[in-house]
C-alpha cells in the first residue's frame, strides 16, 4: 500500500479513516463542543459534556497504553516536544471560544455540518482556514512568533512526565490512572444529565480515533523514510492546508491533516444521509453571515495562537496530558460562555 500511494498518501489515508469516524460521531452521536457547552449553561444538561469527558479519558488511556507497549512516543508530538506559552494558551483559547460562539460551530463542527449540506458552515470553514494560514505563515505570522515564540523544549511538556518521577510511578500508568478517573467522573459525577449507552459508546469511539491517529502516524514515522510527523486530529491549520492542496495539488503533497479534514466531511455526509438529514441550507440574513465570518476569523487566529483548537488541544494534546491542554480547554470554555452570553443577552459580562 505504501509503495503504491507513498508515505504522504498513507498518512492522508490514516487521517481519512479516523476522520470519517469523527464525522460519524458528530452526525450520529451528536458529539459537539459548542453544543455541550450550550447544553450545560442554558439547558441545565451535562449529558454531552459527559460524553466529552469520556472521549478525553478514553483517548488518554488508549494513548498511554500505546506508550507502555512501545507503539508511540508522546515526546515525538510537538505538544510535548516544544515549549508552550501560558499567555498564548489563554489568549488563543479565549479568542477561539468566543469565535466559536459567534460562528455557531468550531472548525470540526463546521466541517461536520458542511458534510450535511450546510453552506453556511462551508463559509465558516473557508474563512477559518484562511485566517489560520494567515496567522501560521502569512502576514500575521511575524506578530505571532514575536509575541509567542516556540522552541524545542529541554524536557517533555507533559503533566504525566512531571508527576511520574515525583511519585515514583511509570509515566504511562500516571496517564492511565488520570484517564480512568476522568471517565469515572464523566459517568457518575455529580452534574446534571445522565450519559446513556450511546453517548458512552460514541465518546469512547472518538477517543479511539484520536489514539489510532497517534499510533498509526508513529508507526509511519518509525518505519518510513520521509520522517513524517507524529500527529493526531486538529481542525485549524489543516483546514487551510486542505484548501491550499485543493488549489495547488500538482505542487503539494498529501498529509494527515488533509485526509483528516476530508474524512470528517465524508463521515458527516454518510451519517446525515443514513439518518435522512442531508439537506442544503444557506444563510438568508446578512447579519448572521457577518457574525459567522467574524467568529471564523477569531477561531482561525485563536487556534493557531494556542497551537490547537477544541479538538487539537481538547482531545489530541489532552490525550498525552500536555501542559497546554487543560489551560487552553478552560479558556475555550470561558470564551464560548462569554460569546453565548453576548448573543443571548446583549451583554458580555453580568450587569450589576
UniProtKB/TrEMBL annotation:
Pfam families named in the record = Sulf_transp
List the keywords (alphabetical).
Cell inner membrane, Cell membrane, Membrane, Transmembrane, Transmembrane helix, Transport
Q: Give the subcellular location.
A: Cell inner membrane
Q: Which InterPro entries match?
A: Sulf_transp_TsuA/YedE (IPR007272)
Q: How does it sit in the membrane?
A: Multi-pass membrane protein
Q: What is the lineage of its organism?
A: Bacteria, Pseudomonadati, Pseudomonadota, Alphaproteobacteria, Rhodobacterales
Q: Which family does the similarity line name?
A: Belongs to the TsuA/YedE (TC 9.B.102) family.
Question: Listed GO cellular component terms?
Answer: plasma membrane
This chain's protein is named Uncharacterized protein
Please name the source species: Palleronia aestuarii
**This protein's superkingdom?**
Bacteria
Q: Where are the transmembrane segments?
A: 12-37, 49-72, 84-110, 122-142, 162-188, 200-220, 252-273, 293-314, 320-340
